[in-house]
Fold this protein.
Amino acid sequence: MRISYAHNSEVIMDAEQPREPEQRQRARARQADIARAAGVSQATVSLVLSDGEAAARRVAEPTRRRVLEVAEQLGYSVNPAARSLAGGRNRLLGVYTFEAVFPSRDRDFYNPFLVTIEQEAERAAYDLLLFTSATLPDQRRSIYAGGVNRLALADGCILLGRRENQAEVARLAREGFPFVYVGRREIPDCEFSYVAADYAAVTAQVAAHLVELGHRNIAYLGAYQPKTPDHDRATGWQAAVEDAGIGDTTQLLRLGKRREIEPVIAQLVEDGCTALVLEDPESAQRYLDTVAELGLDVPGDISVAVLGDVPTVSGTSNWTGFRIPREEMARQAVRLLLDAIDTPAAQPANVTVPCSFTAGTTVGKVPRATGTRTRRTTRGRSR
Protein backbone atom coordinates (compact mmCIF):
# COMPACT_ATOMS: atom_id res chain seq x y z
CA MET A 1 0.00 0.00 0.00
CA ARG A 2 1.21 3.53 -0.74
CA ILE A 3 0.47 6.65 1.30
CA SER A 4 0.77 9.96 -0.54
CA TYR A 5 0.67 13.55 0.64
CA ALA A 6 -1.08 16.47 -1.05
CA HIS A 7 0.78 19.61 0.05
CA ASN A 8 -0.44 23.00 -1.22
CA SER A 9 -0.29 22.84 -5.04
CA GLU A 10 2.15 19.92 -5.13
CA VAL A 11 0.87 16.35 -5.22
CA ILE A 12 3.20 13.41 -4.74
CA MET A 13 1.68 10.07 -5.59
CA ASP A 14 2.41 6.94 -7.56
CA ALA A 15 0.59 6.38 -10.80
CA GLU A 16 -2.27 3.94 -10.62
CA GLN A 17 -3.97 2.42 -13.61
CA PRO A 18 -7.59 3.63 -13.78
CA ARG A 19 -10.29 1.07 -13.25
CA GLU A 20 -13.83 0.73 -14.37
CA PRO A 21 -15.87 3.79 -15.48
CA GLU A 22 -17.94 5.42 -12.79
CA GLN A 23 -21.20 7.31 -13.18
CA ARG A 24 -21.74 10.29 -10.90
CA GLN A 25 -25.09 11.41 -9.57
CA ARG A 26 -25.16 14.10 -12.21
CA ALA A 27 -23.15 15.05 -15.26
CA ARG A 28 -19.76 16.45 -14.30
CA ALA A 29 -19.24 20.03 -15.44
CA ARG A 30 -16.37 20.35 -17.92
CA GLN A 31 -13.91 23.15 -18.46
CA ALA A 32 -15.54 23.77 -21.84
CA ASP A 33 -18.85 24.41 -20.03
CA ILE A 34 -17.17 26.93 -17.75
CA ALA A 35 -15.52 28.64 -20.71
CA ARG A 36 -18.84 29.09 -22.51
CA ALA A 37 -20.62 30.37 -19.40
CA ALA A 38 -17.81 32.76 -18.45
CA GLY A 39 -17.23 33.98 -22.01
CA VAL A 40 -13.54 33.09 -22.06
CA SER A 41 -11.34 30.55 -23.81
CA GLN A 42 -10.95 27.04 -22.50
CA ALA A 43 -7.20 27.70 -22.22
CA THR A 44 -7.94 30.53 -19.78
CA VAL A 45 -10.20 28.26 -17.72
CA SER A 46 -7.53 25.56 -17.62
CA LEU A 47 -4.90 28.05 -16.47
CA VAL A 48 -7.10 29.48 -13.71
CA LEU A 49 -8.17 26.09 -12.39
CA SER A 50 -4.86 24.28 -12.61
CA ASP A 51 -2.25 26.89 -11.67
CA GLY A 52 -3.33 29.60 -9.26
CA GLU A 53 0.03 31.41 -9.20
CA ALA A 54 0.42 31.52 -12.97
CA ALA A 55 -3.19 32.65 -13.37
CA ALA A 56 -2.58 35.52 -10.96
CA ARG A 57 0.28 36.70 -13.17
CA ARG A 58 -1.26 36.11 -16.60
CA VAL A 59 -5.05 36.45 -16.17
CA ALA A 60 -6.81 39.69 -15.22
CA GLU A 61 -8.23 39.47 -11.70
CA PRO A 62 -11.86 40.13 -12.74
CA THR A 63 -11.59 37.35 -15.32
CA ARG A 64 -10.03 34.96 -12.82
CA ARG A 65 -12.79 35.65 -10.31
CA ARG A 66 -15.48 35.18 -12.95
CA VAL A 67 -14.05 31.80 -13.95
CA LEU A 68 -13.94 30.64 -10.32
CA GLU A 69 -17.50 31.86 -9.67
CA VAL A 70 -18.84 30.04 -12.72
CA ALA A 71 -16.90 26.90 -11.75
CA GLU A 72 -18.57 26.97 -8.34
CA GLN A 73 -22.02 27.62 -9.81
CA LEU A 74 -21.66 24.67 -12.18
CA GLY A 75 -20.35 22.40 -9.39
CA TYR A 76 -17.07 21.85 -11.19
CA SER A 77 -14.50 19.64 -9.47
CA VAL A 78 -11.13 18.40 -10.65
CA ASN A 79 -11.30 15.04 -12.38
CA PRO A 80 -7.77 13.64 -12.11
CA ALA A 81 -8.80 10.36 -13.70
CA ALA A 82 -9.74 12.23 -16.84
CA ARG A 83 -6.21 13.52 -17.03
CA SER A 84 -5.02 9.99 -17.77
CA LEU A 85 -7.93 8.04 -19.19
CA ALA A 86 -11.43 9.49 -19.26
CA GLY A 87 -13.79 8.04 -16.71
CA GLY A 88 -11.17 6.03 -14.83
CA ARG A 89 -11.01 5.57 -11.06
CA ASN A 90 -7.79 6.30 -9.17
CA ARG A 91 -8.18 3.77 -6.34
CA LEU A 92 -7.26 6.58 -3.94
CA LEU A 93 -9.00 7.37 -0.65
CA GLY A 94 -8.41 10.82 0.80
CA VAL A 95 -8.10 11.86 4.44
CA TYR A 96 -8.66 15.54 5.20
CA THR A 97 -8.63 17.42 8.49
CA PHE A 98 -9.84 20.94 9.24
CA GLU A 99 -7.05 21.37 11.79
CA ALA A 100 -3.64 19.80 12.39
CA VAL A 101 -4.46 16.36 13.78
CA PHE A 102 -1.96 14.07 12.11
CA PRO A 103 -0.12 12.54 15.06
CA SER A 104 3.51 12.95 16.00
CA ARG A 105 3.14 10.41 18.83
CA ASP A 106 1.55 6.98 19.01
CA ARG A 107 -0.58 8.13 21.95
CA ASP A 108 -2.15 10.96 19.93
CA PHE A 109 -5.98 10.93 20.00
CA TYR A 110 -6.24 10.61 16.21
CA ASN A 111 -3.59 7.91 15.81
CA PRO A 112 -6.04 4.95 16.09
CA PHE A 113 -8.30 6.56 13.48
CA LEU A 114 -5.48 6.98 10.98
CA VAL A 115 -3.93 3.57 11.57
CA THR A 116 -7.30 1.85 11.08
CA ILE A 117 -8.14 3.91 7.98
CA GLU A 118 -4.83 2.80 6.49
CA GLN A 119 -5.51 -0.85 7.31
CA GLU A 120 -9.02 -0.78 5.85
CA ALA A 121 -7.89 1.05 2.70
CA GLU A 122 -5.15 -1.52 2.14
CA ARG A 123 -7.63 -4.33 2.65
CA ALA A 124 -9.81 -2.80 -0.09
CA ALA A 125 -6.80 -2.33 -2.43
CA TYR A 126 -6.89 1.47 -2.18
CA ASP A 127 -4.00 3.85 -1.55
CA LEU A 128 -4.28 6.83 0.81
CA LEU A 129 -3.85 10.47 -0.05
CA LEU A 130 -3.41 12.70 3.01
CA PHE A 131 -4.42 16.33 2.51
CA THR A 132 -2.35 18.35 4.95
CA SER A 133 -1.94 22.05 4.22
CA ALA A 134 -4.22 23.83 1.78
CA THR A 135 -4.76 27.12 3.62
CA LEU A 136 -6.45 30.46 3.10
CA PRO A 137 -4.60 33.77 3.64
CA ASP A 138 -5.81 33.79 7.28
CA GLN A 139 -4.21 30.33 7.78
CA ARG A 140 -7.55 28.50 8.06
CA ARG A 141 -7.58 25.19 6.23
CA SER A 142 -9.81 25.02 3.18
CA ILE A 143 -10.94 22.31 0.80
CA TYR A 144 -11.51 24.99 -1.84
CA ALA A 145 -8.43 27.12 -1.19
CA GLY A 146 -7.66 27.23 -4.93
CA GLY A 147 -11.27 27.76 -5.97
CA VAL A 148 -12.00 24.10 -6.74
CA ASN A 149 -12.37 20.89 -4.77
CA ARG A 150 -8.85 19.60 -4.14
CA LEU A 151 -10.23 16.43 -2.58
CA ALA A 152 -11.33 15.30 -6.06
CA LEU A 153 -7.80 14.02 -6.55
CA ALA A 154 -9.16 11.02 -4.62
CA ASP A 155 -12.21 8.90 -5.39
CA GLY A 156 -13.67 9.87 -2.02
CA CYS A 157 -12.54 11.29 1.30
CA ILE A 158 -12.82 10.85 5.06
CA LEU A 159 -13.09 14.13 6.98
CA LEU A 160 -11.81 14.64 10.53
CA GLY A 161 -11.60 17.50 12.99
CA ARG A 162 -13.68 19.47 15.50
CA ARG A 163 -13.56 22.82 13.71
CA GLU A 164 -15.25 21.97 10.44
CA ASN A 165 -16.05 24.57 7.82
CA GLN A 166 -19.78 23.97 7.47
CA ALA A 167 -20.09 25.90 4.22
CA GLU A 168 -17.43 23.71 2.59
CA VAL A 169 -18.95 20.49 3.91
CA ALA A 170 -22.33 21.58 2.52
CA ARG A 171 -20.74 22.39 -0.83
CA LEU A 172 -19.12 18.94 -0.99
CA ALA A 173 -22.53 17.40 -0.39
CA ARG A 174 -24.15 19.52 -3.11
CA GLU A 175 -21.48 18.51 -5.60
CA GLY A 176 -22.14 14.83 -4.93
CA PHE A 177 -18.52 14.16 -3.98
CA PRO A 178 -18.29 10.96 -1.88
CA PHE A 179 -17.19 11.69 1.69
CA VAL A 180 -17.80 10.53 5.25
CA TYR A 181 -17.31 12.64 8.36
CA VAL A 182 -15.90 10.98 11.48
CA GLY A 183 -18.11 12.39 14.21
CA ARG A 184 -21.73 13.52 14.14
CA ARG A 185 -22.21 16.89 12.49
CA GLU A 186 -25.41 18.84 11.88
CA ILE A 187 -25.59 21.38 9.06
CA PRO A 188 -28.93 23.00 8.20
CA ASP A 189 -30.56 21.68 5.02
CA CYS A 190 -27.64 19.35 4.35
CA GLU A 191 -27.49 15.56 4.55
CA PHE A 192 -24.25 13.61 4.40
CA SER A 193 -22.74 10.41 5.74
CA TYR A 194 -21.05 10.29 9.13
CA VAL A 195 -19.94 7.81 11.77
CA ALA A 196 -20.46 8.89 15.38
CA ALA A 197 -19.81 7.63 18.88
CA ASP A 198 -22.93 7.19 21.02
CA TYR A 199 -21.91 9.79 23.61
CA ALA A 200 -25.42 10.32 24.93
CA ALA A 201 -25.98 6.68 25.94
CA VAL A 202 -22.62 6.16 27.64
CA THR A 203 -22.79 9.53 29.43
CA ALA A 204 -26.09 8.33 30.88
CA GLN A 205 -24.21 5.24 32.15
CA VAL A 206 -21.69 7.49 33.88
CA ALA A 207 -24.54 9.38 35.54
CA ALA A 208 -26.17 6.14 36.68
CA HIS A 209 -22.87 4.97 38.18
CA LEU A 210 -22.56 8.18 40.21
CA VAL A 211 -26.14 7.93 41.43
CA GLU A 212 -25.64 4.28 42.40
CA LEU A 213 -22.72 5.33 44.62
CA GLY A 214 -24.89 7.89 46.38
CA HIS A 215 -23.95 11.12 44.61
CA ARG A 216 -26.66 13.73 44.29
CA ASN A 217 -24.85 17.09 44.34
CA ILE A 218 -22.89 16.80 41.09
CA ALA A 219 -21.34 19.46 38.83
CA TYR A 220 -21.06 18.87 35.09
CA LEU A 221 -18.21 21.05 33.78
CA GLY A 222 -18.45 21.62 30.04
CA ALA A 223 -16.67 23.39 27.20
CA TYR A 224 -17.36 27.10 26.90
CA GLN A 225 -18.04 26.77 23.16
CA PRO A 226 -19.50 23.28 22.79
CA LYS A 227 -19.44 21.37 19.52
CA THR A 228 -21.93 18.72 18.41
CA PRO A 229 -20.22 15.88 20.36
CA ASP A 230 -20.31 18.06 23.50
CA HIS A 231 -24.02 18.69 23.01
CA ASP A 232 -24.55 14.92 22.67
CA ARG A 233 -22.79 14.32 25.99
CA ALA A 234 -24.78 17.06 27.72
CA THR A 235 -28.05 15.72 26.30
CA GLY A 236 -27.33 12.25 27.69
CA TRP A 237 -26.34 13.73 31.05
CA GLN A 238 -29.42 15.92 31.45
CA ALA A 239 -31.78 13.11 30.49
CA ALA A 240 -30.12 10.73 32.96
CA VAL A 241 -30.19 13.08 35.96
CA GLU A 242 -33.81 13.99 35.28
CA ASP A 243 -34.71 10.30 35.12
CA ALA A 244 -32.90 9.77 38.43
CA GLY A 245 -34.83 12.63 40.01
CA ILE A 246 -31.73 14.69 40.84
CA GLY A 247 -32.08 17.42 38.24
CA ASP A 248 -32.52 20.03 40.98
CA THR A 249 -29.27 19.13 42.75
CA THR A 250 -26.94 19.00 39.74
CA GLN A 251 -25.35 21.87 37.85
CA LEU A 252 -24.13 22.24 34.28
CA LEU A 253 -21.40 24.88 34.06
CA ARG A 254 -19.41 26.00 31.05
CA LEU A 255 -16.04 27.50 31.98
CA GLY A 256 -14.26 29.70 29.48
CA LYS A 257 -10.91 30.49 31.07
CA ARG A 258 -8.33 28.44 32.94
CA ARG A 259 -8.21 30.90 35.84
CA GLU A 260 -11.90 30.22 36.52
CA ILE A 261 -11.30 26.57 37.36
CA GLU A 262 -9.82 26.82 40.88
CA PRO A 263 -12.30 29.31 42.38
CA VAL A 264 -15.26 27.49 40.81
CA ILE A 265 -14.20 24.08 42.12
CA ALA A 266 -13.43 25.57 45.55
CA GLN A 267 -16.92 27.07 45.71
CA LEU A 268 -18.55 23.86 44.52
CA VAL A 269 -16.84 21.92 47.29
CA GLU A 270 -17.89 24.49 49.87
CA ASP A 271 -21.46 24.09 48.61
CA GLY A 272 -21.39 20.34 49.17
CA CYS A 273 -20.62 19.08 45.66
CA THR A 274 -19.37 15.48 45.85
CA ALA A 275 -18.57 14.74 42.19
CA LEU A 276 -17.31 16.50 39.09
CA VAL A 277 -18.11 15.32 35.56
CA LEU A 278 -15.65 16.63 32.96
CA GLU A 279 -17.01 16.97 29.44
CA ASP A 280 -13.64 17.64 27.77
CA PRO A 281 -11.08 14.83 28.20
CA GLU A 282 -8.28 17.12 26.98
CA SER A 283 -8.61 19.26 30.12
CA ALA A 284 -9.06 16.40 32.60
CA GLN A 285 -5.50 16.45 33.91
CA ARG A 286 -5.73 20.21 34.47
CA TYR A 287 -8.83 19.73 36.64
CA LEU A 288 -7.21 16.91 38.58
CA ASP A 289 -4.15 19.07 39.25
CA THR A 290 -6.43 21.86 40.47
CA VAL A 291 -8.22 19.51 42.83
CA ALA A 292 -4.85 18.41 44.21
CA GLU A 293 -3.75 22.03 44.67
CA LEU A 294 -6.88 22.59 46.75
CA GLY A 295 -5.72 19.80 49.06
CA LEU A 296 -8.47 17.40 48.06
CA ASP A 297 -8.11 13.66 47.55
CA VAL A 298 -9.69 11.86 44.57
CA PRO A 299 -11.95 10.01 45.17
CA GLY A 300 -11.72 10.30 48.98
CA ASP A 301 -12.90 13.90 49.15
CA ILE A 302 -14.41 14.36 45.71
CA SER A 303 -15.11 12.05 42.78
CA VAL A 304 -14.16 12.89 39.19
CA ALA A 305 -15.54 11.29 36.01
CA VAL A 306 -14.33 12.07 32.48
CA LEU A 307 -16.48 11.76 29.36
CA GLY A 308 -13.95 10.26 26.97
CA ASP A 309 -10.35 9.16 26.53
CA VAL A 310 -7.83 11.21 28.51
CA PRO A 311 -4.49 11.81 26.74
CA THR A 312 -1.90 9.42 28.12
CA VAL A 313 0.34 11.02 30.72
CA SER A 314 2.74 9.19 33.01
CA GLY A 315 1.15 8.71 36.43
CA THR A 316 -2.34 9.64 35.30
CA SER A 317 -5.18 8.08 37.26
CA ASN A 318 -7.32 5.23 36.03
CA TRP A 319 -10.21 7.50 35.11
CA THR A 320 -13.86 6.69 35.57
CA GLY A 321 -15.68 7.41 32.34
CA PHE A 322 -15.66 5.72 28.96
CA ARG A 323 -13.56 4.74 25.97
CA ILE A 324 -14.29 6.13 22.52
CA PRO A 325 -14.40 3.34 19.88
CA ARG A 326 -11.96 5.09 17.56
CA GLU A 327 -10.84 2.02 15.62
CA GLU A 328 -14.40 0.86 14.95
CA MET A 329 -15.48 4.37 13.95
CA ALA A 330 -12.65 4.53 11.43
CA ARG A 331 -13.47 1.06 10.15
CA GLN A 332 -17.12 1.96 9.60
CA ALA A 333 -16.15 5.26 7.97
CA VAL A 334 -14.04 3.51 5.33
CA ARG A 335 -16.81 1.02 4.62
CA LEU A 336 -19.39 3.79 4.23
CA LEU A 337 -17.04 5.66 1.91
CA LEU A 338 -16.43 2.63 -0.29
CA ASP A 339 -20.20 2.11 -0.52
CA ALA A 340 -20.65 5.76 -1.55
CA ILE A 341 -17.96 5.43 -4.22
CA ASP A 342 -19.45 2.23 -5.60
CA THR A 343 -23.06 3.48 -5.45
CA PRO A 344 -23.10 7.25 -6.12
CA ALA A 345 -26.90 7.44 -6.14
CA ALA A 346 -27.25 5.96 -2.64
CA GLN A 347 -28.67 8.09 0.15
CA PRO A 348 -26.30 9.34 2.90
CA ALA A 349 -25.88 6.86 5.74
CA ASN A 350 -25.24 7.51 9.44
CA VAL A 351 -23.72 4.94 11.79
CA THR A 352 -23.60 5.26 15.59
CA VAL A 353 -21.05 3.14 17.45
CA PRO A 354 -21.44 2.37 21.19
CA CYS A 355 -18.76 3.49 23.66
CA SER A 356 -17.39 1.34 26.51
CA PHE A 357 -18.04 2.45 30.09
CA THR A 358 -15.07 2.14 32.47
CA ALA A 359 -15.58 2.12 36.24
CA GLY A 360 -12.03 3.33 36.90
CA THR A 361 -10.81 4.52 40.29
CA THR A 362 -11.61 8.25 40.31
CA VAL A 363 -15.22 7.86 41.44
CA GLY A 364 -16.06 6.49 44.87
CA LYS A 365 -18.87 6.57 47.40
CA VAL A 366 -20.05 9.90 48.79
CA PRO A 367 -17.74 11.04 51.63
CA ARG A 368 -19.36 10.68 55.05
CA ALA A 369 -18.49 14.25 55.98
CA THR A 370 -20.26 15.81 52.99
CA GLY A 371 -21.30 19.36 53.77
CA THR A 372 -18.73 19.73 56.58
CA ARG A 373 -15.51 19.13 54.63
CA THR A 374 -12.66 21.59 54.95
CA ARG A 375 -9.79 21.89 52.54
CA ARG A 376 -6.44 20.63 53.74
CA THR A 377 -3.70 23.18 54.22
CA THR A 378 -1.11 21.00 52.50
CA ARG A 379 -1.35 20.04 48.86
CA GLY A 380 -2.93 16.67 48.39
CA ARG A 381 -2.02 14.25 45.68
CA SER A 382 -4.55 12.48 43.45
CA ARG A 383 -4.54 8.75 43.32
